[in-house]
Amino acid sequence: MGEQDVGAVLREAIGVVLRLGGPPLLAALAVGLVMSLVQAVTQINEQTLAFVPKVVAVIAATVLLGPFMFNTLADFARLLLDRLVALGAQ
Q1: Phi and psi of 87, rounded to 5°?
Q2: Which residues constitute the domain of residue 49?
Q3: In whole angstroms, what is the distance from residue 68 CA to residue 3 CA?
Q4: Which among 19, 34, 74, 83 is least surrounded, fewest beta carbons within 10 Å?
């Protein structure tokens, strides 16, 4: 396994991390922004008011995108195992 192969695997790993972590983080960001606006308009400064909807949004995003996330991770694991087998065959 050369340096180019290691670089390709690392690049793919970073892409997988972004595809797996991005949707829940974006959901939390969007809900946090909306809740901040609501708190600014109503002048209610309660920390749990922003925390609970974020948790619900992250859980909802994870449940809705679970199959996509699982398939992405399974494809990456398959790629790694195929490269490992190919490395052992050399």
Answers
A1: -70, -40
A2: 3-89
A3: 30
A4: 74
